Amino acid sequence: MANSAQATDNVVEMQQPSTRAKVQAFGGFLTNMVLPNIGAFIAWGLLTALFIPSGWIPNEELAQIVGPAINYLLPLLLAITGGRMVGGQRGAVMGAIGAIGLIVGSDIPMFLGAMVIGPAGGWVIKKFDKLIENRIPAGFEMIVNNFSIGILGFILMILSFYFIGPTIEAANNLVTAAIEALVATGLLPLLSLINEPAKVLFLNNVIDQGIYYPLGMQATAEAGKSIYFTVASNPGPGLGLLVAFTFFGKKTARRTAPGAMIIHFVGGIHELYFPYVLMKPLTIIGMILGGMSGIAVFSLFDAGLVAGPSPGSIIAYLGLTPKGSFVGIIAGVLAGAIVTFLVTSVILKMDKSSEETDELASSVEKTKSMKQEGKQVSKSTSNTKQAASKKIDTVSFACDAGAGSSALGATTFRKKLKKRGIEDIEVKHYRIEDVPDHSDVVVVHADLVDRAKMSHNDKEIITIENYINDPNLDPLLDRLENQ
Amino acid sequence: MLAEHLEGNIRFLQSVDSWEDGIQEAAAPLLKNGSITSAYVDDMIQNVHTNGPYIVIVPGIAMPHAKNEGGVNSTGVSYLQLEQPVVFPQNKEVKTFFVLAAEDSDGHLDLISDLSSVLMEDEIQDKLEASTSEQEVLDAIKMAE
Which residues form the signal peptide (chain A) (predicted)? Predict the structure, then answer.
């Protein structure tokens, strides 16, 4: 069918991006993996800030959701998004299968792990599919497709399960040893070098509860307060980071950062800033420097807290500040926020100058994977060949907004019908999701076929790349003329 | 109808740095006369990032547009003709921009219909590409109307 031939050509035509573009694409890749899921982070953050025992309105029942949501939901979402970006819907499934091995095999939330295993799973299935392409005997496609994911996923699940436990234990031991060595030097600001990366990797509990809290409680018994309670829980740097994203981040990141800021700073749920660091890993430098400044100021004022602030919100901080430490604590939080803000702003701004090429590369990457799926769709279109014999009454052109290109396509198609003297065919334009069910044929741009397939998998979908004279529309015109 | 709307909104440039730049330059007249706000320009660029370069409606011609989420004050179109083509993702080269700002999804359909007539005639497309002044562009478009 002309359709699938056309789409296949396009896949072949796509040029490989240069190495430079690939490196730049990596930054965009992380962002694209995290950003679509920020809403889930916020939902979890709100839930946690409100309902955990130390939250605003503790609720034991609802707090049950907190653990599973951060352990399962959020990492799975990241893995699914990452898998889909590399290997389409099949990649998404593989990514999720791989991630569940990590999740169950570890006792901390697996964000970074999910961001590695998701795309890796997508890659595996994509390579496999390519390998066996055109070698599946007719009629066995379904069984091969399902069992390839089934068997490869089964292996991936076991590998990641056995791999992750020892890896985390090793990382925990390393972090603990490093912290103990740093504490021994007495140079407390250096602790941020370990603290900040460890927080984002969810290794902070072992530090906080294993080292800082015992040290802190010891000191509090003697002096009535301790700086150790503040070294990893200062909400200032996270605030600075999110303010920087609010001003200098890219579009979506910029719009979501203020919401995350409130949940982080007032709610004390530090996890809300983690995704922003994960999508721009360089910003960890800002976090480290901010953390250092905070600790330096706390020591300078000889400030401390009377207990471990949990969650680490500004309110918990002030509540646990002993008399005489208020100035020091507030100054330390502010210092952390300001330093992180300044450093992160510079990092984001530098990033912005290369944004154009970066975005370009990432969209090249993205459209590539969409093409891949477009190819699959076109194949399934040719499978519904029997539809060709059905009478066509309604042709719907669809696009993102349903106002611009689809309208152009529909208008032009109507003119062509008129030219050929074909009557009584309803040709209209819609937003993809609004295409009515009685449409016999849906016409959509190749770049949007993924979305069209989600809502209209049961209908015949024709992909075009040219709204005026696409060769894929000619067979349709012929069919309409001859029916 | 299309020619009427384009009057005063036609620009010619030697080249632009990037396709994003191209959309910005092409939309500049609409921004200036208040038809759109800069949010709509951002939306049009974001649309390509999100959905791919499907706004390249036929080879060489882009029709940047987006859903009106408050960035469009009144329906309008603007035109940019480049001497050097600019490259969109997927290596699509574009020399001509028709920026479409639609207040709602119906009010601009006559404009789209005219544009469709323009693009269906290869002869008119050639004339557009060769034109160097606003009057030439308007004359070419009026041929189709």
Answer: none
Give yes or no: B65 in active site.
yes
Q: The pTM is what?
A: 0.53
CATH number at residue B46: 3.40.930.10
Rounded Cα–Cα distance for residues A387 and A390 (Å): 5
The answer to whether the Cβ–Cβ distance between A407 and B112 falls below 8 Å is: yes
Domains in chain B, number = 1
* Residue B72 is assigned to a structural domain of this protein: yes
For residue A444, give the chain B residue with the closest CA. B54
Query: What are the residues facing A226 on neighbouring strands?
Result: A305
Which is the catalytic residue, given B5, B49, B65, B108?
B65
Residue B30 lies in a domain: yes
DSSP state of B101: E
Q: Chain A interface residues facing chain B, Cβ-Cβ under 8 Å? A: 14-15, 251, 356, 359-360, 363-364, 366-367, 370, 399-405, 407-408, 411-412, 415, 445-448, 466-469
- Written as six digits, the tokens of A326 are 């208020």
- A374-482: what CATH class? alpha beta
CA atoms within 13 Å, Cβ hemisphere of A384: 16
DSSP bridge partners of A305: A226
B144 domain-assigned = no
ipTM of the complex: 0.85
Q: What letter does residue A65 receive in the DSSP assignment? A: T
pLDDT in tens, chain A (483 residues): 344 444 433 333 334 445 545 555 566 677 778 878 888 888 888 888 888 887 778 898 999 998 899 899 999 999 999 998 888 889 999 999 999 999 998 878 888 889 889 999 999 998 898 888 777 777 777 788 889 999 999 999 999 999 887 887 788 788 888 888 888 888 889 999 988 988 888 776 677 777 888 888 888 888 888 998 898 889 999 999 999 999 988 767 888 899 899 989 988 888 889 889 988 889 999 999 999 999 999 999 999 998 888 778 898 888 888 888 899 999 999 999 999 999 999 998 887 644 444 444 444 444 444 444 444 443 334 334 344 457 788 899 988 777 778 888 888 898 888 888 888 888 888 888 788 888 889 998 888 887 788 778 778 889 888 888 888 888 888 888 887
Assigned token pair, A10: 């396009």
- Residue B71 resides in a domain: yes
Which member of A108, A398, A399, A452 is catalytic? A399
Please give the residue range of the domain that contains residue B89.
Answer: 2-139
